[in-house]
Write a structure and sequence with these properties.
Structural class: alpha/beta
Number of strands: 19
Helix content: 25-40%
Strand content: 15-25%
Number of domains: 3
Bound molecules: flavin-adenine dinucleotide
Radius of gyration: 22 Å
């Protein structure tokens, strides 16, 4: 018996069938007779990037807390993923670089599931097949909400099938959950129904992911490592994520911030990788076999919509996932926060029909710590605009020291990974033992040149 094994209503409709929508459908399935998931894309059997989730072409790390929740909602999920050929490893034993320096690996017991994003989504969707009351309405555009005349309560959603000459239809629902991602129309729909729009907080980072898949001629070049991650930071803004994924393939996303972007032409892509202070990714891909052309995705700003601050909100409508908060992706938080929000929804369903504002307040609590990590971390770049209260300045200075201490002390790596993986609260970074270790072993980043000059870089020919 879970918190939510209470019948709450007849039909719930989930808008959007990506990660947040799927996890929402999973918890709603325990509480509603029928759960309908509506998406504009074809979903069944899709294991490749799709139009509605363009970010799916780029590296997606699933944080440890996300992996734990997938195992809780779909018992045996990780085991099945491994059996299907998805590599896994210990999060603390990946090849991590912060401020250009390699962290000492540490066994954390936290599992990193290293899947291509569309493949991970396909596994979640497949697992949801065990819940026979969940149905998908694919290739269907969501047009808007239906509500009572006074706008007090949402009663359903207007949708239209794609590619067929049919009129828009209304799907009646006892609950509608918006999981349509960053482009969510809920702020507009609220205004149409006579409500205030939520306040929006934006942290502009002008980030670009440029991504390519490879096959390695010889995997021994990885020294057994599952992934190599020189993470962007103010002293080393050019970053990358390299991962071994399913099907014997590898994926590389090069990450440029503040308008810097790796080119999409193959030579320019490789040259940009070669320009990084940390040579590891370039050394691995320079002789690897490319499987596609580089492709770019630009992410202008993190966006947090403060629904919890509204005084009025329609009944029977909830917002979840990127629709509520879209985090700078280099911190890898979006899917895991969506999973944590799904657990929050499960707890609310255990008490009956969810009260929207109470739910939105509770997920604001879920969002807060990861937002502090990512938006707060972005403010370490002097060029990023935003208020910098002393606490943010202090945490960024402490983080730089901690990353440095983690290059010497694996216990620091371990604690840091548990917090960054959203398993432990941020307080764990400030325990007396941790502060002692950070002050003992940490030195501030030295701020080397941001890119290697052509002369300093060995030529591709070696
Ligand atoms: C470059 C990049 C890299 C990322 N890397 C990571 C990472 O490493 N780890 C991580 O956890 N997160 C990462 N994220 C974030 C992650 O992609 C999202 O947090 C995650 O997909 C959950 O989002 P969502 O389900 O709320 O929305 P989305 O994934 O955006 O899905 C929205 C869904 O709604 C559908 N939809 C939207 N509008 C309509 C409409 N009008 N009609 C019908 N259907 C509609 C779309 O087709 C889509 O299926 C990254 C994001 C980006 C941009």
């Amino acid at each position: 018996m879970t918190d939510s094994d209470t019948n709450v209503g007849r039909r719930a409709v989930v808008l959007g069938g990506s990660m947040a929508g799927l996890l929402t459908a999973r918890v709603l399935a325990d509480a509603y007779d029928e759960v309908l998931v509506v998406d504009r894309d074809e979903l069944s059997a899709v294991r490749t990037p799709r139009r509605g989730v363009p970010q799916g072409r780029h590296v997606h790390g699933l944080l440890a807390r996300g992996q734990q929740i997938l195992d809780e909602l779909f018992p045996g999920f990780t085991e099945r993923a491994v059996a299907a050929g998805i590599p896994t490893g210990d999060l603390g034993e990946l090849r991590w670089f912060f401020n250009g320096r390699r962290l000492r690996p540490a066994a954390t017991g936290l599992v990193c599931v290293s899947a291509d994003r569309p493949v991970l989504e396909a596994h979640v969707r497949g697992s949801l097949g065990d819940w026979t009351n969940v149905r998908f309405l694919e290739e269907t555009d969501i047009l808007g909400l239906c509500a009572t005349d006074d706008g007090a309560r949402v009663t359903g959603v207007r949708v239209k099938r794609r590619g067929v000459e049919t009129a828009a239809e209304e799907l009646a629902a006892d609950l509608v959950v918006d999981a349509t991602g960053r482009g969510s129309r809920t702020p507009v729909w609220l205004a149409e129904l006579g409500y205030d729009r939520p306040a929006e907080q934006r942290i502009k980072i002008d980030l670009t992911y440029t991504t390519r898949h490879y096959r390695l001629p010889d995997e021994s070049i990885l020294d057994g490592d599952l992934s190599i991650n020189p993470v962007s930071s103010p002293s080393h803004p050019r970053g990358a994520f390299f991962s071994r994924i399913d099907g014997g393939r590898c994926i590389v996303s090069l990450t440029g911030v503040l308008g810097d972007a790796a080119p999409t032409d193959p030579d320019g892509f490789l040259e940009w990788a070669r320009s990084m202070e940390v040579p590891d990714v370039y050394e691995v891909i320079k002789n690897a076999k490319p499987l596609d052309d580089p492709i770019a995705f630009t992410y202008p700003a993190s966006v947090r919509r403060h629904y919890e601050q509204l005084e009025r909100f329609p009944e029977r409508l909830l917002v979840i996932g990127d629709a509520a908060c879209s985090f700078n992706p280099v911190y890898g938080q979006g899917m895991t926060v969506a999973a944590m929000e799904a657990l929050t929804l499960r707890a609310h369903l255990g008490r009956g029909v969810p009260d929207p504002l109470a739910f939105l307040k509770d997920i604001a609590g879920v969002i807060e710590a990861p937002w502090q990590i990512s938006a707060g971390g972005d403010l370490a770049y002097p060029e990023v605009e935003g208020p910098r209260p002393p606490m943010v300045e202090m945490m960024n200075a402490y983080s730089a020291l901690m990353h440095s201490a983690a290059t010497r002390d694996p216990e620091v790596t371990r604690t840091f990974m548990r917090v960054a993986g959203l398993v432990d609260p941020a307080d764990a970074l400030m325990s007396p033992d941790m502060i002692y270790r950070v002050l003992k072993s940490g030195t501030p980043p030295s701020g080397p040149p941001t890119t290697r000059t052509a002369a300093a870089v060995p030529s591709p020919a070696g």
